[in-house]
Amino acid sequence: MEGSIMKRSAFFILLMLMGWICSPGHAQVIPVGGTPVLSESFADTLFPPPGWIADGVARTVSSGSFYSAPAAANFSGHAGSLTLPAVANPSVVQFYLGRTTSAASKMMIVEVNDGTDPAHFIQVDTFDHDNTTAGDFTLCQTDLSPFSHLPSVTIRFRKASSTTSPWRLDNIEVYATTSSLPVSLTLFHGEFNSNTGCTHLEWATETEEQNAGFTLLRGNAQHPFAPIGNVQGHGTTTMAQHYTFRDPEPLHPVSYYKLIQHDHDGRSDTLKTIRVITGLQSDLEIQSIHSRGADLMVQLSEPLTGPVNILVSDLHGRTRYQTQVNANNQKIFSLRVKLLQGVYVLYMSDSSQRVTRKFSVDL
């Protein structure tokens, strides 16, 4: 392990000296600091690795074609995406980006989902064929410090191209800042109930240290954030805790909610901010969800037409499956997704409506 680290460090220094660090519009090298929280070299034949989601991406092995390793994630076709498992408090993602000698124009886009909307990714960086070494691998970095305060972040690599010339990713590493928050937040979710006109909020912690409690703030573009309630904490505990709160007067058409945590010594921290859509009035409902083997069958109350975003997450907010399908006036969707035993949340949305529902998988 020590030899591998020294080899990689020497290679990194060499790339800096030779100017081979990816620089999409900026030449500054990001200092790699913090704790390594994710590392994948794609050396194992299993692809995608557990917890990863590959769409139009496959593991490839080609002796002599890769500078950093004998295997890599290969983005072929015109598009494709590779979604990493969720990480907390990210600071930098570092990876090797490889290309063939083809000069065909293409981009590799790095995106981040901050947990506000599981289906929405924020573009944070782009790399094109002009700043990536032809016929080789180039060490690249993306600064994730704007998201370093968040307890759950999902990173996705996405190819954008009109050519089938591939991108190749290898040795992906994510570094995170060391969180000193006394509360380890694992969930913060909100859902608007059109029947009652209320928003139901829930959150969960894995551990707590001297936690006096929480304050919930509500706001949107027209209304500044203001407190709407307080919930008592559990002091110091290593047992998982679950909290709920009901907002009877949400703002329309969207409400933002901030979760503030308070220590017994008077310190306060903003743990997370979420968005809840409250203005969509729709009769659409998820009537049933059935999981059998690698098949997931979903039946809606009303048919959908056009692009439909589908996402499955676990109760910690980690994405387990994500796709987009083109619905043709259909109410029943059959998906190929293998889930382990447990409880999950299904999100479905089109251009005008969005529904969610929890479901369980029993093996």
Task: Write structural notes for this entry.
The protein has one helix spanning 2-18; strands spanning 35-40, 53-55, 57-61, 71-75, 79-83, 90-99, 106-113, 122-128, 136-143, 154-161, 167-176, 183-193, 198-219, 226-237, 241-247, 254-263, 268-277, 286-292, 295-314, 319-336, 342-349, 354-361. The chain is globular and about 60 Å long. It folds into three domains: 2-176, Galactose-binding domain-like (Jelly Rolls), CATH 2.60.120; 183-277, Immunoglobulins (Immunoglobulin-like), CATH 2.60.40; 286-361, Immunoglobulin-like. It is mostly beta strands and 363 residues long.
Summarize the structure.
The protein is mainly beta. Helices cover 5% and strands 57% of the residues.
Return residue spans where pLDDT drops below 50 for at least 5 consecutive residues. 1-21, 23-29, 63-69
Largest sheet: 6 strands, antiparallel
Q: What's the CATH H-level homologous superfamily of the largest domain? A: Galactose-binding domain-like
**What is the number of beta strands?**
22
Determine the CATH topology of the largest domain.
Answer: Jelly Rolls
